[in-house]
Amino acid sequence: MTKLTVHIEHKDPTFTYTAKATVNGQDFDESETFKTDGTPAQDSRGATVRAHWENETLVIESTAADGSPLDETHITLSADGNTTTRDYENKVESQKRHEIYDKH
Prior knowledge:
Layout: E1 3-11, E2 14-23, E3 26-35, E4 41-42, E5 48-54, E6 57-63, E7 69-77, E8 83-90, E9 95-102
Antiparallel strand pairs: 1-2, 2-3, 4-5, 5-6, 6-7, 7-8, 8-9
């Protein structure tokens, strides 16, 4: 990945993010909207997404049609509102990522 821009709009309980990136020379766009109150929604992959708050951390869990876990994401915002931390775990491929985004 050579470039990544993430835009987050959050007006509880609605959470929307849009990501634009360049990966291996190819541009990539993705946008998802879901509720932070645990209400299930479908994402662009057809997975069921449920998000809920655990204290100051937004936990997002995705499952396949058969109920098997796909991934889990934990998102926190710094006290000054300038840094977002995203911890992602792909349950299918056993991959983990720790990402830090600075507000611009």
